[in-house]
Write a structure and sequence with these properties.
It holds the Pfam family LolA_like. The chain is mainly β. It is 13% helix and 47% strand. The protein has three helices and 16 strands. The longest helix is centred in the N-terminal third of the chain and has 25 residues.
């Protein structure tokens, strides 16, 4: 499924209602452009993930390897995440596979080294934390464009980006994790650079996602680092693509785009063995 990430009596009243409808159509058009942003056929990156307590201390630091592939014909993506290292040794070699499906729940499996077993993640577990992070399994998944209504609220600057601000409200509230989401979408790239997710229970602000750095690599606009914060608990998760040094001491980003990755990587067998 696609992620959209991420809605009377007097003439004056009628004019206001018409303007609102136009904004809703504009909001949908913005999100549709977000979905149509060019994607690499393959991506392979090394990532640092920090789980950060309310007081700012790092509870756990992880080194993650991520493989991804995108099928342009079906417009679906698959991803494999491997915990190569962690300050919590019990999490080392945790592996996760997600295979995107159109008009259906995504397939997800996780390998837990303590159990030495791969298990399927059921759709009923969507609101559970993904390996102790501030993201849930549903956050890892995606939404179809028409799963939500999209309303263009305004246009404004956000963290140095000139943005469209779009509110996305679920059409079927019972199947959605949040009451609604508001995204700040960079006009130049159509990449969401900031987002707010609102609590389904009482409509209060629940989570905030901030893209700290956006970089164009090989014609693709890649969020190089971002922070997801649960504002109700104060806990946050930061992920950033790491760097290495070349022979001349120059910093190189640990990300490779459009280099084919073997199909075997995106299988349960690979999840079980890591090879």
């Amino acid at each position: 499924m696609k992620k959209a990430s991420l809605i009377k009596i007097t003439f004056a009243a009628a004019a206001f209602a018409a303007a609102g409808a136009a904004f809703a159509e504009d909001g949908r058009a913005v999100i549709e452009k977000v979905l149509n942003v060019k994607k690499p056929a393959y991506n392979h990156s090394l990532i640092k993930m920090d789980l950060i307590a309310k007081n700012g201390s790092i509870e756990e630091s992880r080194e993650i390897e991520e493989y991804g592939r995108h099928n342009a014909q079906t417009d679906t993506s698959d991803v494999v995440i491997i915990f190569k290292n962690s300050t919590n040794k019990g999490n080392i070699n945790t592996r996760f596979l997600q295979m995107e499906k159109k008009n259906a729940d995504d397939d997800k499996w996780i390998y837990l080294p303590a159990l030495r077993n791969t298990r399927r993640v059921n759709s009923s577990e969507g609101d559970k934390s993904f390996t102790g992070t501030d993201a849930t399994y549903d956050d890892m998944s995606t939404r179809e464009l028409d799963d939500d209504t999209h309303e263009l609220l305004k246009e404004e600057q956000k963290n140095g980006f000139n943005c469209y601000v779009v509110k996305s409200t679920p059409v079927n509230a019972s199947k959605a994790q949040y009451k609604y989401r508001i995204q700040w979408i960079d006009k130049a790239t159509y990449v969401p650079v900031y987002a707010e997710m609102y609590d389904k229970k009482d409509g209060s602000l629940l989570k905030v996602l901030t893209v700290e750095k956006l970089k164009n690599i090989g014609g693709y606009n890649i969020p190089m680092s971002n922070v997801l914060k649960n504002v109700q608990t104060g806990h946050s998760t930061r992920i950033a693509i790491t760097q290495r040094k070349d022979a001349n001491g120059n910093a190189l980003d640990n990300i490779v785009l459009d280099k084919p990755i073997p199909d075997r990587v995106f299988t349960q067998s690979f999840l079980n063995t890591g090879k």
